[in-house]
Amino acid sequence: MRERLEALRDEALAKVAVAKDVKALQDVRVAYLGKKGPITEVLRGMGKLSAEERPVIGQMANDVRDAIKVQVELKEKELEAAAIEKQLANESIDVTLPGRPVQGGSTHPLTQVVEEVEEAFLGLGFSVAEGPEVEVDYYNFEALNLPKDHPARDMQDSFYFTEELLLRTHTSPVQARTMELHKGKGPVKVICPGKVFRRDDDDATHSHQFMQIEGLFVDENVRMSDLKGVLEQFAKSFFGEDRQIRLRPSFFPFTEPSVEVDVSCGMCGGKGCRVCKQSGWIEVLGAGMVHPRVLEMSGFDSTKYSGFAFGMGVERLAMLKYDIDDIRHFYTNDIRFLAQFKRV
């Protein structure tokens, strides 16, 4: 039995010495010190020994087991240290290598257009007003001369939460709320940028969510010529000094008279091309003189005050300015598209 234990010790220590990784070392530990290992078998067979041999062999078995355990632990620390050194060597950083350039982001093209429009109108004395995107029916329709039975409501297929609560279909409710805050006293001179929502099928020119910027000027003796002058100044500021505008009769429930506003085509200079469909003009926004009933519902005396309002789609402005052919490019977050609009 004594010779058996000595042979097991020498055999185990030899395998510990040549173990090349922690897994191989653990295999040695289990093979010799586990419950099914040979040393455990020796201890279980001690009952067959004489009373004099039993304590001697038991002490020797414990000494062999402790010797193997100590060498396994020492070898394990050695292998772990070697593994750490190897990892550090593989992960070392060469501080002399050139750094990788960090690419900064840029403002989204729609945000850039909103900021440009705001800058143009701030220079004309307008301020910026905002309002809720979840709106009540009164401000979205009724306060804008669109009672519940008005057929023009069909022009704007809406997202309703209840009969009285919906996602706003335009930013005109902000105009109505702003006029109410003035309590019938002018002047009111604001632009209202923001998101709007309509039940529409998404395609190259339509989206169920888009952005608008609407403007309002209410004061004494405001005329249609004032509207044309303001919009002409905006067109030159946004599209270029050589651009002209024209007004065409139209219809909007909250303005009377109402007009569609075209800007001369920048691609052909008004001569006619594929962009302007050979007309020389491109439609950019709708406008008109504020309907007297809209003024009165917001607390203004329509015999004393008059005003004009206008509204434009931000995506349309961006598509015209940058010659973009699909509105969906603005919402797909394609870095190749967005990188073209980095500001210098």
In terms of quaternary structure, what is this?
single chain
Described by strand count, sense and barrel closure, the largest sheet is: 7 strands, mixed
CATH homologous superfamily identity of the largest domain: Bira Bifunctional Protein, Domain 2
N-to-C order of helices and strands: HHHHHEEHEHEEHEEEHEHH
List keywords for this structure.
single chain; 344 residues; alpha+beta; BirA Bifunctional Protein, domain 2; 2 domains; seven-stranded mixed beta sheet; two-stranded antiparallel sheet; 11 helices; 9 strands; 19% strand; magnesium ion binding; aminoacyl-trna synthetase; catalytic activity, acting on a protein
Task: Please give the structural blueprint.
Layout: H1 2-18, H2 22-33, H3 38-44, H4 53-90, H5 109-122, E1 127-128, E2 134-136, H6 137-140, E3 165-167, H7 172-182, E4 188-197, E5 209-220, H8 224-239, E6 245-252, E7 255-264, E8 281-290, H9 292-297, E9 305-313, H10 314-322, H11 335-338
Parallel strand pairs: 1-4
Antiparallel strand pairs: 2-3, 4-5, 5-9, 6-7, 7-8, 8-9
Helix pairs in contact: 1-2, 1-4, 2-4, 5-8, 5-10
Keywords: Aminoacyl-tRNA synthetase, ATP-binding, Coiled coil, Cytoplasm, Ligase, Magnesium, Metal-binding, Nucleotide-binding, Protein biosynthesis
Pfam family, one: Phe_tRNA-synt_N
Subcellular location: Cytoplasm
